[in-house]
Amino acid sequence: MSQIDELNQLMPTNLDKTTAEYISIFGNETFTSISPIEESSDFQCGAIANELEYVKGFIDYITRTASIDDFYGVYLEKVVSFFTGLTRNPSETDAELRLRFNALVVRKNNFSWLTTWMIRDVFSYFFDVNTIYVVENYVLDDFVVDGSFEIDPTLNWVVNTSGGSSISFVAHDMFYGSTCAEFVVDALGSTCSLSQTLSAVPEGYYILNFFVKDDQPSATSNLFKLMLQRSSDSYYYNFTSFSWQAAATYKVMSKNSSAEYESKQVFVEMTIDDDLTLTFENVGSTSEEYTFWIDRVEFGTMLDYPTIKLIFVDENLGTGYLSIWPSGEDPIATYEYTEASYIEQCYVSGFGGTGLLPYFYDLLEIIRPAGVKSMIEVVWRAHT
Q1: Which residues, 6+ apart, have CB-to-CB distance to 253 below 8 Å?
Q2: N or C end of the chain, less CB within 10 A?
Q3: Distances in Å between the alpha carbon of 347 and those of 4, 10, 351, 364?
Q4: Which parts of 94-181 fold into alpha helices (H)?
């Protein structure tokens, strides 16, 4: 039954419902609507009946819909706010707000919480999932000089090679920036190593982070070894017992699960103040030639609170990188201060000139584990 039929049944019986005035104000029992209905006047019934039909249709639509894609305008805002707490950002379209809702709620059908895979799935709505990295225990006071090989690697890194193996600083296959270290190991496994001595590392607990990728060799699973040796007594760090010993020891690093870069991290305890030599070296004998690349090497104090860093790699930002910090204090500037731009949330509304800081940070605030400090970093990679 139409709204005008119901309305007419409620009217006094002696009221003439066929007059032009009545039809114009209340409605005509015989009417043909415009399809599709976009506004109340499209019902073409009468002023009051048009509005009643429109309200009835909207209530039916709202109560029956099962998809966020069917909501729009203020009603979309109410649904998103009710289920997620998100609010519409300035100039954010309905499509963009729905995207944030889907990223947070649907999460590519990932039903787990508090995992790195879940965080990647959330932000894969906005970035290629292969360019999203979640790093636990980020480094603030980096002791490594030119850990990304962007300044002049030959001044800060020592290269040793033999046979047909080689180490080069190349402008392809990098994790970020325009350069990375490329290790080409010959089929005989001839030794090649890359090392740097970190000066005056105080006693304490440290984190070593770096990124690595490989060409997925078919017959070789262990690609290189990581060694730490202190200067005062030439002792080596044992990554299994977390202690120092006279005999040479190292940590073997296996090939990645895919051909993409992966983040690697190890814990180190310095029991005395000392200089520390960090070395990457191929494992030795092999039956095939293979290649791997290392980039973004960091060694710094392990913070006394849990942290995560969400890294997006982009080829469109221009040189340098941008760090988004969810706090009112800037981190300690590193030697790469000319390339870094540290932004405080309380003063800046976005990064890269796109106004996306609140867009992404709101999501990270919701999905990060309670008590864990977080940051977003967007790094630039030269297009190759």
Answers
A1: 212, 222, 223, 224, 225, 226, 264
A2: N
A3: 56, 60, 11, 18
A4: 94-105, 116-123, 153-156
Compute CA 247 distance to the chain's CA centroid, rounded to the nearest angstrom.
Answer: 41
SS3 24: helix
Report how far residue 253's alpha carbon sits from residue 221's, in angstroms, rounded to the nearest whole number: 9
Query: What is residue 330's DSSP assignment?
Result: P
pTM of the model: 0.74
Strand partners, 140: none
**How much is the pLDDT for 254?**
94
Q: How confident is the model over 304-338, as pLDDT tens digits? A: 888 888 888 876 654 444 444 443 344 444 434 34
DSSP tally for the chain: helices H, then strands E: 8, 17
Task: Among 2.60.40.640, 3.90.110.10, 3.40.980.10, 2.60.120.260, name the CATH number for the domain at 141-302.
Answer: 2.60.120.260
Q: Which two tokens stand for residue 361?
A: 């940070």
